[in-house]
Amino acid sequence: MTLAKLKRIDQARIEISPDYKEGMRVKGIIYVDELLEKELEPQAIDQVANVATLPGIVGASMAMPDIHTGYGFAIGGVAAFDLKEGIVSPGGVGYDINCGVRLLRSNLTRQEVLPKLENLVNLLYSEIPAGVGSKGKIRLSPEDQKRILVRGARWAVEQGFGDAEDLQKIESGGCMEGADPSLISNKAYERGRAQQGTLGSGNHFLEIQYVDEIFDERAANILGLFKDHITLMIHTGSRGFGHQVCTDFLQVMERAAQKYRIPLYDKELACAPYDSPDARDYLAAMKAAANYAWANRQCIMHWAREVFMKQFGLPPGKLGMNLIYDVAHNIAKIEEHEINGIRRKLIVHRKGATRAFPPGHPELPDVYKPLGQPVLIPGDMGRSSFVLLGTQKAMEETFGSTCHGAGRLMSRHQAIRRAKGRSIRREMEDKGIIVRSAGRDTLAEEMSDAYKDISNVVEVVHRAGISTKVVRLKPLGVIKG
Amino acid sequence: MKPFEILDISGDIGLRSFGKTVQEAFVNAAIGMYSLITDTGKIEEKKSIDVSLENDSLDSLLVAWLNELVFHFDAYGFIGQKISITESDLEPATLKSYRLNAVLSGEEFDPDRHESRLLIKAATYHRLRIAKVNEIWKIEVIFDI
Lengths: 481, 145
Prior knowledge:
The complex is a heterodimer. Chain A is an alpha+beta fold. Chain A has helices at 34-37, 42-51, 110-113, 117-127, 142-151, 153-158, 164-167, 186-192, 217-223, 239-259, 277-312, 316-319, 392-397, 412-419, 424-430, 442-445, 454-464; strands at 6-10, 13-16, 27-31, 57-68, 75-82, 87-88, 100-104, 205-214, 230-236, 272-273, 323-328, 330-339, 342-351, 354-355, 374-377, 385-390, 401-402, 434-437, 467-480. Chain A has 17 helices and 19 strands. In chain A, the strands form four sheets. In chain A, strands 7, 8, 9, 11, 15, 16, 18 and 19 form an eight-stranded mixed β-sheet that branches. A seven-stranded mixed β-sheet of chain A has the order 1-2-3-4-5-13-12, sandwiched between helices. In chain B, helix 1 packs parallel to helix 2 (58-76). In chain B, the strands form two sheets. In chain B, strands 1, 2, 6, 7 and 8 form a five-stranded antiparallel β-sheet that branches. Chain B has a three-stranded antiparallel β-sheet with strand order 3-5-4, covered by helices on one side. By secondary structure, chain B is α+β, with helices and mostly antiparallel strands. Classes of the chains: A alpha+beta, B alpha+beta.
C-alpha cells in the first residue's frame, strides 16, 4: 500500500494523489482528521482511488469521515460524473437503494415519556414489523406496487398514511420522477410484495430520542427542536425490493461495461455511460426503488405516530409529531453544480453520504430556505445522533454532500466476541435505554463499541464547514430488526 | 474437511466453503449462507424447489446461485436443508457457458419457531474467489447484510 501518496490538505482532509494508482483521472479526497485517519482501512482508500478511474468523473473522488470498505465504491463515497463523458454505476448507490433517515419532532418532553417508555417501546415493537423473515401488514396487489414505484411517499399519503404536508419535508418530495415499473424484474416485485412498511434488520432501527444539546439555537427553534423534547428517528430503505433491483442491474452493467469497453478495477464498479440505454434503464429502476423506500418510511412513521397517540391519548395537534425531514443516503441524482465558475448538470452518486444543500437552494421547501437543508445523522444505538444543516461550502467542495452515520469499526464477529458473557440489553437499560430486537445477535453486533464515535465523525464535517451542528439527540428506546 | 467457515470482515460477513468437487463447494456455500440466516438444524424437509441457472462465467454463476437462494428466502421465506446439484457443467474453465440444476428441500422460515440471525441482502463479487488448491475446491464469497 503506497500510503506515502496520501497527503494531508488541512485539518479535515487528506488527498490521494492521482499517481496513487494507474488510470486515476482525478485525485481522491477523504474527509478525516488525524484521529479518524488512524482508523482508515487500506482497502477503503483503494476503493476511493478506483472510483477516480471511472470515465467522466468530475473534480475528485471523495469520501466522508464515516468511510469504510464497501463493494466497488467505499461506504461514505461521493462521486459526480459528467452527463456526456461520464457513467452511472449501481455500485455508487449500493444494494439498499435510498436507505435513509427521517426524523420527527414532538411536543412531548422526556419527563412525560419516561414513565411510559417501556410500554411505548413494546407497543412500537409489536406494531412495526422488524427482523429477518418478518412480513409487513400491507399486502400489495401488482397495481398497488406499481403505483408505489411511480408515486413513492405520495402513494402512502393517498392510502391515509400520514399527511400531505409531510411530503414537502422529504428529499425530492418523497418521489423521484421518471421511475419505470416495466423495467422491474418479477423477482423484485415478489420480494417487494410483503415488505412495504417493514423496518428490516442489521443497522436499521426506529428510535425514541430526546434533544440533549443545542448548538444552534436559531435553527433548532425553526426546526421545532427544544431541549429535552422527544424526537423519533427511522432508519430503513427499500428492503428486498431495492436489493433485487441492484442485483439485477449489476448483471446488466457488467455486460454494459464490457460492451462499452470501460476498464474496471473491481466487478462491483460495473457501470455504463450515462447516455446509454443501460444507464437510463438502471436510473429508472433505481428511482422506482427510491420511491419504494420513501413510501416505506412514510408508512412506518404513520404507525409510530398512531402508537404515540394511543399511548398518550392525545390528538395529532397536541402531540405535534411533525416530520422534520427525510434524507436519502444511498442514491444517484442529477443536480446542478458550479465547476470552475460554470454551472453544469452532473450525475452525483452518494453511497453512505447525505445531501447537504445550502440556504436558498431551489430544491428546499420554503420553510428551510433561510436555514439550509436539515441533515440527519444517526449514530449507534447507545451514543447519540445529530441534526446538521447543509452549507454553501458543501456545494463548493463536496457537490453538496456530507457524512451519513458513524461507520463500523469492528466486524460483526469481533463485536459478538467482545459482547460474550455480557447482556447488551441490560447494559443499555443501565444507561436508561430500552432496546427490543428480533435477531439473536443483533444487539451484540450493533453495540456502541462496534462503531466509530459519531461525535468524532460529526466534528470533522462541522469543522470542515460542509455541514454545521444544530442539535444532538440521545436514545431512550430502540427497536432493532 | 469442514464444509465451510465464516470469514470475518468489518461491515459485512463472508464465507469460505470447501468441496472435493466444485459442485460440493457450491452446495457448501449455500449451506453456509443458510447458517448465517438461521439455525439450519431446526429446518425440516417439508417442501422442495428446483433451481436452474446458466451464466457465462463460473464466478457469475456462483453469485447468481447464492442470489437465487437469497431471493427464494426473501420473497417466500424458503430455507433449504438438503441441497443437491443434479446436473451441471462447471468445469473446465474453457467452457463458454456454465450451468447447474439443483433441487433443494427445506421449509418456510417461521420467526416464532426459527432463530433469526442475519438478513442477507445479496451475495457480492467483492473479493470473490473460486479456486482448486491441492485437489480441494475453495470458494470465498462476501455478503451484503
